[in-house]
C-alpha cells in the first residue's frame, strides 16, 4: 500500500529521517456532513476541513514546529494554521496560473456577472487575463444550487491569505496571467 511504500522510501539508506516527519491523520467521520451520493471532491474537501483540529493538535505536540505549511487545493482550510503556528504558507497548484486566477476571481463575482456567465453562457472577464469561455468553466462552478459549488467557490477567498503559490507554469507560457496575479 501507499503508506508502507512511503515509509520504506523514507527509511531507505541515504534518506535523512530527520528531514521528513510523516504523520498519519485519522479519517474523520463525515457521514453527518455530506450526502453519500455527493461528488467525491466535496467529500474530500469536507474530510480535509474536519481533520484540521487533529492536524492542529499534532503540530502543537511537535518539539520542533514546522516553519512552512504547503497545502493543495483541497487543503486550503488549513492555511489558518500558518498564522496560528507562525508558519509561512504556500498553496501548491498542480494546474496552471489560469486555473489559479479563475478560482480566486470567481467568489468575487456579483450576481449579474455570474448570471451572464453561467445562465447566458457569455465569456467571463477576469481582470488582467483572457476572458474565460463558458465551455472552459470548471464543472463545480456551473450550478450555484449544488453542494459542489457551495463548497468550492468560497475556497477562492482563501488563496490570497497564503504567503505564496507553487504553480505548474512558466513566464513564457502564461506571462499575462502571472502578471495579473502579482
Automatic annotation (TrEMBL):
Example of a GO MF term: coniferyl-alcohol glucosyltransferase activity
The UniProt record lists the keyword Transferase: yes
Domain of life: Eukaryota
Keyword Nucleotide-binding attributed: no
Keywords per UniProt: Glycosyltransferase, Transferase
The name this protein goes by in its record: UDP-glycosyltransferase 72E1
Organism expressing this protein natively: Noccaea caerulescens
Taxonomic lineage from the root: Eukaryota, Viridiplantae, Streptophyta, Embryophyta, Tracheophyta
